[in-house]
Amino acid sequence: MHKVRRVFVAVAVLLLAACGNKGPEPLYQEQGYVFGTLVEISVYGETEAHAKQVVSEVMHEFQRLHDMLHAWQPSELSDLNAAFAKGESVAISAELVAILQDAAQLSRQSNRLFNPAIGGLVKLWGFHGDEFKPVQPDEKQVAQLVAANPQMSDITVEHGRVQSKNKSVQLDLGGYAKGYALDRAAELLRKQGINNALINIGGNILALGQHGKNPWRVGIQHPRKSGALATLELRDGEAIGTSGDYQRYFMVGNVRYCHLINPRSGYPMQGVQAVTILTRGKHAGVLSDAASKPLFISGASGWREAAKQMNLSEAMLVDTQGNIHLTAAMQKRLEFADRNIHPQMVQ
């Protein structure tokens, strides 16, 4: 029997602990739904009017990016994909040019395991849709797309016009857009004088400042149970991101097929339940989204090498048996909900 599961549970659970102040805290929170997932913004220490105004601007920015980067509904990105399929060049915005160049650099760094050019494979497996059904693509179609080898390096940009020398390139920025939106939100909030906030886009979370006298504390969703696997304090400018097999997937018999596709095989990655990484710096948001994918696709045997390639010192992988593998630096940051957990640590 085929079973469809499409669960929009935040990968990281927001935990706002009281700071011991008397009376209600100056905390403004607003939720929305964009990028196909739940979005939540928390602002601390501002008047409600100011926080509401700025958060509204951020939510509008999220919608703008959603409309620009949508892979299967009419958008600037879908227009670009149509041009690629025809072998034509098309003028695109300077913003999209910068996004493609950045995504191409991350693809090179990941040894092409982060590969937004495989939108054709994502579609073939039925993951281009707000609702999807279990599919078993024809093996020959999968093999043909893998053999076509669509890569970000196939895309050329000249005088604001973009073209692909490979007609099989179909862009899907689902592994980049949420992180990019986090960085844009942080920029907008800071410009408006808000220095203490937490931005959560479907479990990709970026922290600004603190929650009162304490750091923001968040939890990492358990990949097979409700509630948190572990919690940690997220410091100013840090972001956390998780790639998991439990949000967008379907079952065929006892086999789980998730939306994270190995570009080398053309098949959804198996053997891993979740990968969580911690990032920081100017592009912490983008990295929290994109850099987890190469670790997930590398599996339990290759995730550590992939982490080194992506310059990640704090990372954790939960394999298909539920065993937890993590770096020593990540172990120092986590507090596991189950104290009987004994993770396998690597340097």
Can you tell me about this structure?
This protein is α+β, with helices and mostly antiparallel strands and 347 residues long. It is globular, with a radius of gyration of 20 Å. Helix 1 runs antiparallel to helix 6 (177-191) and helix 6 packs antiparallel against helix 7 (284-290). It has a single domain (1-347), classed as Roll (T-fold), CATH 3.10.520. It is built from nine helices and 19 strands. A hairpin with a 6-residue loop joins strand 10 (216-221) and strand 11. The longest helix is centred in the first third of the chain and has 22 residues, at 48-69. It has a nine-stranded mixed beta sheet. Residues 1-13 and 16-23 have low confidence and may be disordered.
Summarize the structure in short:
With 347 residues, the protein is of the alpha+beta class. Helix content is 31%, strand content 28%.
Q: State the CATH architecture.
A: Roll
**Rg, alpha carbons:** 20 Å
Distance between the termini: 43 Å
Uncertain parts: 1-13, 16-23
Please, how many helices?
A: 9
Order of helices and strands: EEEEHHEHHHEEHEEEEEEEEHHEEHEE
**The CATH class:** Alpha Beta
Strand residue percentage: 25-35%
